[in-house]
C-alpha cells in the first residue's frame, strides 16, 4: 500500500501514464485499421497488401528513428519540445488518416503517427529511467497499456463505425488519443528543476540594501573618529 501511494505522489506518475496511453493507442490503432479494412478498401480502392504496407510503415517509424531521438534527448533544452511534438504527431497522423483519399496518403499519415509514437516512447522511457526509484516495476506497469488497447479500442472502433463510418470513427479516436498531449506537458524534466533552482539562487540578494548602507555609514563614522583621535594626540 505504501509503494502504491509513493507511485501516485511521485514525479514518475505522468511518465507512466504517458507510456501507458502510447502503448494502448499504438496497438489500438492497428486493430482499428483492421476493423475498418473492408470499408477502407471500398472507399479508397486499396487492397489488403496496401493496408499491410501502411501498417508496416507505422511500425517501422515507431522503431527506426529511436537512435536519433535518443541522441537528441541528450540536449536538455529540447527534451520537452521533443515529447510534446511527438504527442501532437501521434494524434494528428490518425486525424489526417481519416481524411486520406489514396493509399499513398494513408501510408504517409500513418508514418507520421509512428514517428510520434517513437518520440513519445523514447523520451518517456529515458525520463522514467532518470526519475524512477523502481524503474522495472513502473515500466512494466506502463506496458500493460498494450493489453488494454488491444481489448478496449476495437470495441470503441466498432461502435463508432456503426454510427459515423470509418472516417468519423478514426477522427473521434484521434481526439481520444490527443489526451496524451496534456499528460506529456505534465512531465517534469531535470532541466526544469535545474533552471528553477538557478533562478531561485539568482533572485536572492547577497545582502539587503539597508544593511549595505548601514555598514558603509558605520565604516565612515569609525574613520572620522580615528582621524580626530590622531589629531588630538
TrEMBL record:
Positions of the Major facilitator superfamily (MFS) profile domain: 1-233
**Membrane topology label:** Multi-pass membrane protein
Q: Which SUPFAM superfamilies match?
A: MFS general substrate transporter (SSF103473)
Gene3D superfamilies, alphabetized: MFS general substrate transporter like domains (1.20.1250.20)
Q: Name one GO molecular function term.
A: monocarboxylic acid transmembrane transporter activity
Which InterPro entries does its entry note?
Answer: MFS, MFS_dom, MFS_trans_sf, Proton-linked_MCT
Give me the Gene Ontology terms describing cellular component.
Answer: plasma membrane
* Compositional bias ranges of the Basic and acidic residues kind: 223-233
Indicate what this protein is called per its UniProt record.
Answer: Major facilitator superfamily (MFS) profile domain-containing protein
Biological source species: Strongylocentrotus purpuratus
